[in-house]
Amino acid sequence: MTALASDRALRGADSITDRLDAAIAATTFERPTLVLDLDIVSRNFQALQRGLGDASIHYAVKANPAPQVIERLAMLGCHFDAASRGEIELCLSMGARPEHVSFGNTIKRATDIAFAHRAGITMFAADAEEELEKIAEHAPGAQVYLRLIVEPTGADWPLTRKFGCAPARAEGLLAYARDLGLDAIGLSFHVGSQTRHARMWSDTLNQVAATWHAVLAAGFDLRLLNIGGGFPAFHGDDVDPLEAYSRDVMDLVRARFGDAVQIMAEPGRGMVADAGAIAAEVLLVSRKSDDDLHRWVYLDVGRFSGLAETEGEAIRYQFETARDGDESGPCILAGPSCDSVDVLYEKRPVSLPVSLRAGDRVVIRNCGAYTSSYSSVGFNGFPPLDVMVI
Amino acid sequence: MTALASDRALRGADSITDRLDAAIAATTFERPTLVLDLDIVSRNFQALQRGLGDASIHYAVKANPAPQVIERLAMLGCHFDAASRGEIELCLSMGARPEHVSFGNTIKRATDIAFAHRAGITMFAADAEEELEKIAEHAPGAQVYLRLIVEPTGADWPLTRKFGCAPARAEGLLAYARDLGLDAIGLSFHVGSQTRHARMWSDTLNQVAATWHAVLAAGFDLRLLNIGGGFPAFHGDDVDPLEAYSRDVMDLVRARFGDAVQIMAEPGRGMVADAGAIAAEVLLVSRKSDDDLHRWVYLDVGRFSGLAETEGEAIRYQFETARDGDESGPCILAGPSCDSVDVLYEKRPVSLPVSLRAGDRVVIRNCGAYTSSYSSVGFNGFPPLDVMVI
């Protein structure tokens, strides 16, 4: 067994990822490239369908807006969560029907709301009076769901308070939406990015259920619960398999909200992360001082060319090299730009072969989500992360 | 005096920035746009020339690679510090001569070194054995300067240890370069981004001078000191005017390194920051709870569409609105994306008019550096920061 194969076995890869590995092995890349396997996207969608049952699945386009991903998912009957006019146009151009695209950003330009309304989009997110006013003016009568703030859970990347209103404001905002002639159909929340186990949803669901039942009791006709994203990818720490995870989440949801409520989910990372790997290259290996225990390893991909989620060392990617059987030692990993914040892992160094050197290929696993779309237009003159779809 | 004019007076703007203000006032922007005034770039270059005397000025292209900026600076006789093959190609295509372009990234792809060598680039940065080996192989006989790590100073954004070698390694690396047939001509360092006063250079210069004189004493023929960047922009805290700042820095340099040494500087921010302002728009103003003291203000530009340097709230931009005379109050400022880390200022809120609302224009000052180039290719479906050059 080669070092790469042994590592694959460790992370539980199966035959479907062999296609991705084979494509990478067969290709000479001129620059860092995200290789994306549509069959893995299909498999993930089907696992989510089985797990989530009758919930509607709106893929969070921002996770990876590659047109081929949108097209494949539209073909499979997936719905979409769009953050902007640009994402709505993308979905519609790739075959999605407008009634299957929700405009899920709570911060929308008025002219983009008007565009969406003209394009046939019927469902909008909101969390504030002024947003409801904009929707009522530019998409009169539209369906809206209200985003709630929930208290942080154990997610790897808990969210800030940027989105949502305090639960105490929900009733007032729903009443305001009704007064504005909007159809206030439900509530939404986000459990936090990369919530690794279904059981970690319980506290959040309890918070939302308390608001939900209070609002129902106040006479509001809620029909939709949007449970957002949070579906995790494998990044070294144990995660539940997607289907079982989704089923367990739905069990927790149904126990609190009953069977009559329409459930909507917005997986992004869970849909595409493990469908992609980045083929990168080592540019330099060095030591800063003769007595340094760790080396610095510089890759041709960094925080400004695709690996933005290493900010604060939040998401820990897995690295594979052809030398993985050799003796290894701790490395600080950094990107290629002349920017001192373009360091990937320093507080918790990464163990890599001591034989590693400039020119070696590095494969970075589970990079299908939040990489190519975060890439800069060309910081330091490096082109954006290339994408190759298989 | 209008609120905008009064604010301009406060920050000491003069007639040359009126042209920028007039251009913004006369334009309807469909999306966030960086408006860049080439006359201010020229003025800054000339101030740097006067202050830096006979030093050669290599503009750090990464700060703003707008082709018109490169073209204007090449016309004025400025030299360039390029971080990549892409930036070298840009400079050469805009009229720079190859002997005036240094390849200043210490992390270079071997094929890019070969490209640069073929294109006539003669000067390369390095900080490690493997980098010297790559240069010797692909640009035989080239001039190299060695980047040193210096200890952090009082810069607003001190650098990490990503670049440079420990001073104790300098002699060994210079000897290695010589053995490889390279022309080891000098040393470089970086004092830290946004070093607001010339006097803050003293400690760093002392550190570098100690290494410099030790290496000279060991028989190495150093002829070049590259003092890097660090030239500051105005972001609310007091900074010295550019010409006086540069002159004071040169006095500190000459006192330690003598008059015979060739000095090279790499201003980026100092050259272009105040030449640009972003015309942005308020998308939403809200409160999360009825008893919140602060509001949330969401702009159509954020961390992923140009304002990357607000990471950690490091760089504090100045905001102007047409309502600046009205009563004001604390705001958390955030970008438009569905990303919870896309928050600009939260720990230290920004004071903005209480009358501010969706649709209002916001002008963000001194945004000419490190904005458009950091912008993502289209995160959340938002196009990259637009650039309008006047």
Automatic annotation (TrEMBL), chains A, B:
Pathway: Amine and polyamine biosynthesis; putrescine biosynthesis via L-ornithine pathway; putrescine from L-ornithine: step 1/1
PROSITE patterns: ODR_DC_2_1 (PS00878)
Domain Orn/DAP/Arg decarboxylase 2 N-terminal: 41-273
Cofactor(s), names only, from the UniProt record: pyridoxal 5'-phosphate
GO molecular function: ornithine decarboxylase activity
InterPro entries registered for this protein in UniProt: Ala_racemase/Decarboxylase_C, De-COase2_N, De-COase2_pyr-phos_BS, Orn/DAP/Arg_de-COase, Orn_de-COase, PLP-binding_barrel
Cellular component terms per the entry's GO annotation: cytoplasm
EC number: 4.1.1.17
Active site, per annotation: 338 (proton donor)
Reactions catalysed: L-ornithine + H(+) = putrescine + CO2
Biological processes annotated in GO: putrescine biosynthetic process from arginine, via ornithine
Domain of life where this protein originates: Bacteria
Keywords: Lyase, Pyridoxal phosphate
N6-(pyridoxal phosphate)lysine found at: 62
CDD domains xrefs: PLPDE_III_ODC
Family per similarity comment: Belongs to the Orn/Lys/Arg decarboxylase class-II family.
Name of the protein described by the UniProt record: ornithine decarboxylase
